[in-house]
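Figure-free illustration: sequence to structure, shown twice.
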Amino acid sequence: MLTVDDLHVYYGEIHALKGVALEVRRGEIVAILGNNGAGKTTTLKTISGLLAPRRGVVALEGTPLTGLPAHQVVLRGIAHVPEGRRIFNRLTVRENLLMGAYPRKDSGIDADLDRVFALFPRLKERIAQVAGTLSGGEQQMLAIARALMARPRLLLLDEPSMGLAPVLVEQIFDTIRDINRQGTTILLVEQNAAMALALAHRGYVLETGAIAFAGTAAALAEAPDVRRAYLGE
């Protein structure tokens, strides 16, 4: 479904991604693991059009996306939930959700509101609340729900567990699994490697801008180097 090939991205003179190549197949959850500064967020930003690669190709179902602006990438079927959530703090929950559906002209927006409220009942309870007054967990729910309102075929999630209490992390990960079961393919960046590998079908490990390991989630979870570096063993 998604193909990334020989991706090179720079910040000025800093070579952030060094030939990254990965694929995400339809219906999968694929995890990208790595330490801070490894290039995980840069990879997602490049896929979603927020960063332009100096070299390499990003393609969705065979159609190149490289060089398209971010709003065009959304129209092609990719939605990005960024690190730090980035909700519209001064808008209500409902207004944030409708912003997620801004490019749509179809009649299914109300049905999709019902869908995200089924996934995140707390958001329905807070529908008229100003988003900046929500708890951290509620804001993460809103960020994911807003992305789903674009009806993406591929959902990019950047550190959805960041700053959340363990009980909320489990709830968010259960919901991510439900979203995938409903038919949305997911590419997940996550520092909680154990939970990410328990959720994902396959995974990649980034180290200093390059892929160091790749395989099924089960194989990565058993790999000695991965266990030592990312699972604390």
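We now fold a second protein in the same way, so the two outputs can be compared directly.
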Amino acid sequence: MLELDDVHVHYGKVEALKGITVSVKQGEIVTLIGANGAGKTTTLKTISGVRPLSAGRITFEGEDITRRKPHQLVEMGICQAPEGRGIFPGMSVMENLEMGAYANRGKDSKSELDRVFELFPRLRERSTQPGGTLSGGEQQMLAIGRALMAKPKVLLLDEPSMGLAPKLVAQIFEIITEINAQGTTILLVEQNAAQALRRAHRAYVLEVGRVVKTATADDLLNDDAVRAAYLGGSVE
């Protein structure tokens, strides 16, 4: 469904991605794990069209999207909930969600809104409240909900558990699993590697801009090197 083939990305003279190859099949949750600076967020930004490629190719549903603009990619069905949430703090919850539906070009978005409110009942309760007054967990729900309003075929999630209390982390991952069960393919970047691997079908390990390991999520959960580097030596 989504394929990155030998992708290189630079920030000035610094090569952030050094020829990564990643694939995401329809219906999967695929996660990218790695230390800070490994290239995980850059990978998502490159897929979204925010960072240009220096070399390589990206295809989506068999179509070359390497040079597509971000708004074109959203219209094709690639949507991202970015690191740091990126909501509009002065706009209400409902207005934030409506912004997510702009790619639907005036089509009735009631079904998408109903889906978001079913997944995140708190957002319905807070629908008239400014986004900036929500708690961190509620803002994360809003960021994911806004992306869902565009009817994504692939949802890119960048650090959805960042800064959240453990109870909220568990809730967010349960919702991510439900979104996938409803038919949305997910590419997940997450520092909480244990949670990510428990929810994912497959995973890629990135180190300094390179894919160094790929396997099923279960295999990586039981990989001694991965456990020592990213799971604190344990999967408990």
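Summary for the second example: The longest strand covers residues 14-24.
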